[in-house]
Automatic annotation (TrEMBL):
One family name in Pfam for this protein: Aminotran_5
UniProt catalytic activity: (sulfur carrier)-H + L-cysteine = (sulfur carrier)-SH + L-alanine
Documented EC number(s): 2.8.1.7
Descriptive protein name: Cysteine desulfurase
Electron transport found in the keyword field: no
Source organism per UniProt: Craurococcus roseus
Family the entry assigns: Belongs to the class-V pyridoxal-phosphate-dependent aminotransferase family. NifS/IscS subfamily.
Gene3D superfamilies: Aspartate Aminotransferase, domain 1, Type I PLP-dependent aspartate aminotransferase-like (Major domain)
Keywords, sorted A to Z: Iron, Iron-sulfur, Metal-binding, Pyridoxal phosphate, Transferase
Length: 401
């Protein structure tokens, strides 16, 4: 049982706690069979390989793919890099005339940096705006496709800050019509919303184990097999993972990711209903104490556990977090070497700087209890009153990436 003096964890977009069933599935592969899953010449190696392949099947099932279309990586950041840079560089090596790579202003930082890197290599980078609700206007995307032949479009399935869910099927259909590859970062969507790569016309999809109650350090990239998507690997090695991601697979992490994916697929509806109930309870309790607190992002087209909230009264979110140390939430701010800037996602949906600085991201998850949300709402409301009144000592937590 968790000690009652532990902080309430409401930062499930940053990472989720590993499910105890995931930890149990991983443990034998640390202690009893530690063999290299590529050492298939002996029995223990073959057993490890079988466990890896079973996990690959569970990850594939979560997104409606074939097991052989799943490439394991160290996480979604690596998967995004392989997908975006790999597709562009392979196309260039084949003399393709398509140079345009399209993405959104609200994408994860690693996707935006991938696209910027490609721009320095001579590709045309196009970063599209979103509406005030965080959603992509499909007419804007259509215009981007019409302006020049497009190689690839990358659109996050669910935004990691404001929780809005894009229309993947519509984007996939438009990409196919334009002859472009469609990549989606689904790290925040997997296990929270149904995903089917075939129905949505997705060519490349990135996943992360620690966003679905699995271990950190493991992720996956779905690479469509028919018609085949060709990628250039980021680095050289022994040719594991279809030659796209060389290196020894960490069998315990792969097994844990597979078990997390299996549980997510089986319990998605139950989890979603439970999380939505806690979200509504939290919002009702906070709203009763803090008049004028505002939700950012589309109110319906979003994952159930996300609340991106702007607090009234000109409070600073960093000061608000410091005043409520018994609650673990985040601001969504990104760090530079010298200062914390307002979230670029919030600025992209039109929030003024002062409002962006007064915004917290709440991430409710599988293990959040009614007592947790009651305690968190009360603590944040009390902290807001003190900060707004100027009675809280001036202090702020250290900024984190």
């Amino acid at each position: 049982m968790r000690p009652t003096n532990r902080p309430v964890y409401l930062d499930n977009h940053a990472t989720t706690p590993p499910d105890p069933r995931v930890l149990a599935a991983m443990r034998p592969w640390w202690e009893e069979n530690f063999a290299n899953p590529h050492s298939v010449e002996h029995a223990m190696g073959r057993e490890a390989e079988e466990a890896v392949e079973a996990a690959r099947g569970h990850v594939a099932d979560l997104v409606g793919a074939e097991a052989r279309e799943v490439v394991f990586t160290s996480g979604a950041t690596e998967a995004n890099n392989i997908a975006i840079k790999g597709a562009a560089r392979f196309a260039a090596s084949q003399g393709s005339g398509r140079q345009r790579v399209v993405t959104l202003a609200t994408e994860h930082k690693c996707v935006l940096e991938c696209v910027r890197d490609l721009a320095s290599e001579g590709f045309e980078a196009v970063v599209l705006p979103v509406g005030a609700d965080g959603l992509l206007d499909l007419d804007v995307l259509r215009g981007a496709f019409a302006a020049a032949p497009t190689l690839l479009v990358s659109v996050m399935a669910v935004n990691n800050e404001i929780g809005v869910a894009q229309d993947l099927a519509a984007i996939g259909a438009m990409a196919k019509e334009a002859g472009a590859l469609f990549h989606t970062d689904a790290a925040q969507a997997a296990g929270r919303v149904p995903l089917d790569v075939g129905e949505a016309g997705i060519d490349l999809l990135s996943l992360s184990g620690h966003k679905v109650y699995g271990p950190k350090g493991i992720g996956a990239l779905y690479v469509r097999r028919r018609p085949r998507v060709r990628l250039a690997p980021l680095f050289s090695g022994g040719g594991q993972e279809r030659g796209l991601r060389s290196g020894t697979l960490p069998a315990p992490l792969v097994v844990g990711f597979g078990e997390a994916a299996r549980l997510a697929a089986a319990e998605m509806i139950l989890d979603g209903g439970r999380v939505a109930s806690q979200r509504d309870r939290f919002m009702a309790a906070l709203g009763a104490e803090v008049s004028g607190v505002r939700l950012n992002g589309h109110p319906e087209r979003r994952v159930p556990g996300n609340l991106n909230l702007t607090f009234p009264g000109g409070v600073d979110a960093q000061a608000l977090m410091a005043a409520a140390p018994e609650v673990c939430v985040s601001t969504g701010s990104a760090c530079s070497s010298a200062a914390v800037e307002p979230s670029y996602v919030l600025r992209a949906i039109g929030l003024p700087e002062a409002e962006a600085r007064a915004t917290l991201r709440i991430g409710i998850g599988r293990f959040t209890s009614p007592a947790d949300v009651d305690r968190a709402a009360a603590a944040l409301a009390a902290a807001w009153r003190r900060v707004a009144a100027g009675t809280e000592p001036a202090r702020a937590p250290e900024a984190v990436e």
